[in-house]
Specification:
With 315 residues, the chain is α/β, with parallel strands linked by helices. 40% of the residues lie in helices and 19% in strands. The protein folds into 2 domains: 28-122 and 241-308, Bordetella uptake gene, domain 1 (D-Maltodextrin-Binding Protein, domain 2); 124-237, 3-Layer(aba) Sandwich (D-Maltodextrin-Binding Protein, domain 2), CATH 3.40.190.10.
Length: 315
C-alpha cells in the first residue's frame, strides 16, 4: 500500500470537516446575488420579487446587485471567478444557453463553472408587434413574411423567434440587441419581438404594441385575450423562459441545499405566488439535481436549435 494514501485520506477528511463547519456557520453576513441583466429585465424583475421573501428564510439579506454588460457576460463572469463560499450567487436563466451559442469565447463555461441551485419559475415569451406593422395575428405576420422574404425584422430574448422562424418556414432577419429591443419595436424600427412576459408587462398598456400571441402551449391568465402559439398553428414554436439561481462551482452542497430549501419554502407563500402571477411567472418546484439536469438539457437544446437555425456566433 502506498505511504501517501493515509495522508490523502487525512487531507480529504480535513477538507470535508472545513466545508461542514463553513456550512454550519452559514450565513454569517449578507449574501450577494448578481443580476447579469438590467433592472426591468425578466430575470432581474423575477429575482427581486423572490429574493425579498427568501431573505427571511435564510436569516440574512440576499442583496441583488445589478451588473449588466455584454449580454449578461459581465455578470456571469464575475460570479464564475468568485469564491465558492456561499456568499455569491447569480440569477441564471434561459440566457445561459443563448450566450453559449452567440459567443465562441466566453470567459466561463456555462455548465462547468456554475452549479444550479433552485428554479424560481417559468414564463412564456410574448410575441408583440409595433402598431405601425398593422399585424393583428400571427397569421398576419407570417403572411407578410412570405410575401416579402427577408424584409421583416425581429428581436428575441432567448430562441423563441428562431423557433417560430423554423416552424413557419419564413425568411426574416434577426436583429441582435444587448438591451433595448422593446424600445425599438415600440418605435416601429423593428417589426416584432419575443420578450418574456415579466419584462413586457409594464409596456403592454403603452398603446404602441399589439400582442399577437404567447409562446406557451395554452393561454395565460395575465393575457386572457392573447392566443397561445399552439392556437396560432405553430406547436413547434412553444418556448418558456426560465429564471433561477446558480452559484459558483464547488460551492458546498450543504449551502446549496439550504438556499434551495429556503427558496422552495418562500415560493409556497400565497402572497409571493400572487406577486409572481402578476408577472406571468409560474413557480416550478424541483430538486437540486432535477434543476441541474433541466439547465444542462436547456443549454444542450439551445445549441441544437442554433445548429438547425444556422445561427453563427456574433464573436
Amino acid at each position: 500500500m502506498s505511504l501517501l494514501r493515509p495522508f490523502a485520506a487525512i487531507g480529504a477528511a480535513v477538507l470535508f470537516a472545513a466545508a461542514s463547519a463553513q456550512a454550519d456557520n452559514w450565513p454569517a453576513r449578507p449574501i450577494r446575488v448578481i443580476s447579469p441583466f438590467p433592472a426591468g429585465s425578466a430575470s432581474d424583475t423575477t429575482a427581486r420579487v423572490v429574493l425579498d421573501s427568501v431573505s427571511r428564510f435564510v436569516g440574512q439579506p440576499m442583496v441583488l446587485e445589478t451588473k449588466p454588460g455584454a449580454g449578461g457576460i459581465v455578470g456571469f463572469a464575475d460570479v464564475a471567478k468568485s469564491e465558492p463560499d456561499g456568499y455569491t450567487f447569480v440569477t441564471s436563466s434561459t440566457s445561459l444557453g443563448t450566450g453559449s451559442v452567440l459567443h465562441r469565447h466566453l470567459p466561463y463555461d456555462p455548465v462547468k463553472d456554475f452549479v444550479p441551485v433552485v428554479m424560481f419559475g417559468v414564463q412564456p415569451n410574448v410575441l408583440v408587434a409595433s402598431k405601425e406593422s398593422g399585424f393583428k395575428t400571427v397569421a398576419d405576420l407570417v403572411a407578410a413574411a412570405r410575401a416579402k422574404p427577408g424584409a421583416l425584422t425581429f428581436a428575441s430574448a432567448g430562441m423563441a423567434g428562431e423557433r417560430l422562424r423554423l416552424a413557419a418556414n419564413i425568411d426574416v432577419r434577426h436583429v441582435p440587441f444587448r438591451d433595448g429591443g422593446l424600445t425599438e419595436v415600440m418605435a416601429g424600427r423593428i417589426d416584432y419581438y419575443f420578450i418574456p412576459l415579466a419584462a413586457a408587462a409594464s409596456a403592454l398598456g403603452s398603446g404602441k404594441l399589439t400582442v399577437l400571441a404567447v409562446s406557451s402551449p395554452k393561454r395565460v391568465a395575465l393575457l386572457p385575450d392573447a392566443p397561445s402559439i399552439v392556437e396560432s398553428g405553430y406547436p413547434n414554436a412553444v418556448f418558456r423562459f426560465w429564471v433561477g439561481l446558480s452559484a459558483p462551482a464547488r460551492t458546498p452542497a450543504a449551502i446549496i441545499n439550504k438556499v434551495h430549501d429556503a427558496t422552495e419554502k418562500a415560493l409556497q407563500d400565497p402572497g409571493l405566488k400572487e406577486r409572481l402571477a402578476k408577472l406571468g411567472v409560474e413557480p416550478e418546484p424541483m430538486s437540486v439535481d432535477a434543476f441541474g439536469k433541466y439547465v444542462r438539457d436547456d443549454i444542450a437544446g439551445t445549441a441544437e436549435l442554433a445548429k438547425q437555425a444556422h445561427i453563427e456566433p456574433l464573436d
